[in-house]
Amino acid sequence: MKPLFFLCVALLLALPASADSILDGGHVKARLTLADFPDDSFSGLFLDPPAFDQGADLRLKFRVGEAAWRGEADYQLIGQFGDSLELQRQVGSVLPGGGVQNDDRRLMDLTWTLAEGTDYATLHRFDRLAVSYTGAKWVGKLGRQAVSWGNGMIFNPVDIFNPFDPAAVDKEYKSGDDMAYGQYLRDNGDDMQLVWVVRRDADGDLTNDVNSLAGKYHGFAGSGEYDVLLARHYEDDILALGGSLPWGGAVVRGDVSLTDTSEDTVWSGVASLSYSWIGFGKNMSGVFEYFYNGFGLSEGFTQEDIENKPDLVARLARGELFNLGKHYLAGAVLIELSPLFTISPNVFLNMADQSFLAQVVGTYDLRQNWQVLLALNIPVGDADTEYGGFESTIEGVRFEQGASLFAQLAIYF
Fold first, then answer.
1. Going by C-beta distance under 8 Å and a sequence separation of 6 or more, which residues neighbour residue 102?
2. H, E, C per residue of 311-378
């Protein structure tokens, strides 16, 4: 246990609360994933297709406090079973992300393993554990929490704190980090935010080399809004500008970021247009977005090419980037077929090699507080492309994935 954990718990216990207000809801989710892959793919070295995974998690949200002082603690009980977990454990660091969730790089170790084996794991943890103060103009929050910045609707290069994969299906909760957060509200509606995230390095030591200190100014200009962000993130300096503006019946959003790394100075950007309308008697909303990934590869994909881009590899490993190329177009349309059923076809296109990921997501409210989430993912592309697959450093073995199916039942209380 770390001192900050004890501090958060002590403050939570000190806050006043009535018995019926401590538990503030939660959910139970059960999910299945079926993923195909070719026999000559990297996954085929370890598994027989298709890969089958199961998972479940319970989240309990506890809230205490009244008026200005508040405390929160989100408890999770997680179970994982399947081929992907087995693959991750056999391969290790070759595959970024995935695997069993842990707090190895966080300040506080709030994850405890109950049981684990080759292809299964059960654990429990706190994904939120924080105390906050809200005044007339000041907001302060200390502990494990989540912060989301940036104006990207699908890709979000400015969201450097645990961003979602653009193709992720369930985006209800992003992982929390251990941080101190402050916000000052100005009389004109503008606000200033400051975030300090403390992490551990690969050896488990606390060092400024892996910390983040970031500040953002959010302001209003006429009918639009703008953001100015300055950050020291790991060992990089970041300057970002962004905003949103209504345009007719649509909204234009975007961000541009400049990152000064030890290797180079890199800029990235995202711009999107979102619009809502009624078509064929149905409510619809859509977004069209362009993303420039300054850390990506211009053309051609091999494992060797990727490994020769250390800044790209570092961001893939940290879960800050999820794409290998430089230029992307993405489009998504949400169609309300009925008040209980929505469907969303999405496309993620690598403009350089013309490969793309086609995705269809469906959401159905089975009954009150019961929701079914379904998704079909189909990667399409020629050989030696991002979504079509590319050569590994092992002769005759490719990094290539086939179609996948995701199904989830969520029960809220």
1. 111
2. HHHHHHHHCCCCCCECEEEEEEEEEEEECCEEEEEEEEEECCCCCEEEEEEEEEEEECCEEEEEEEEE
- Say yes or no to pLDDT of 229 above 60: yes
Burial bucket for residue 296 (CB in 10 Å: 0-12, 13-18, 19+): buried
Burial (Cβ within 10 Å: 0-12, 13-18, ≥19) of residue 343: middle
177 pLDDT tier (thresholds 50, 70, 90): very high
Whether cis (ω within 30° of 0) applies to the bond prior to 16 is: no
Closest CA to 151 of 213, 218, 214, 197: 218
Q: Which helix (H) or strand (E) holds 6?
A: helix 3-14
Q: How far apart are CA 127 and CA 177, in angstroms?
A: 8
Mean pLDDT of the chain: 92
pTM of the predicted model as reported, rounded to 2 decimal places: 0.90
Q: For 81, which DSSP code?
A: E
Q: Residue 106: CA atoms inside 13 Å, Cβ hemisphere, count?
A: 27
Pairing of the two strands 265-279 and 250-260: antiparallel
Q: Convert the pLDDT of each residue in 127-137 to its tens digit.
A: 999 999 999 99
Q: What percent of the chain has pLDDT over 70?
A: 93
Confidence of residue 342 (pLDDT cuts 50, 70, 90): very high
Query: CB count, 10 Å around CB of 386?
Result: 25
Q: Report DSSP letters for 168-226, one per residue.
A: -S--S-PPPEEEEEEEEE-TTS-EEEEEEE-BB-TTS-B-GGG-EEEEEEEEEETTEEE
Q: Which residues pair with 375 in a beta bridge?
A: 361, 406
Kindly report the number of other CB atoms within 10 A of residue 367's CB atom. 8
| CB contact at 8 A, 116 and 100 | yes
Q: In the beta sheet, which residues pair with residue 310?
A: none
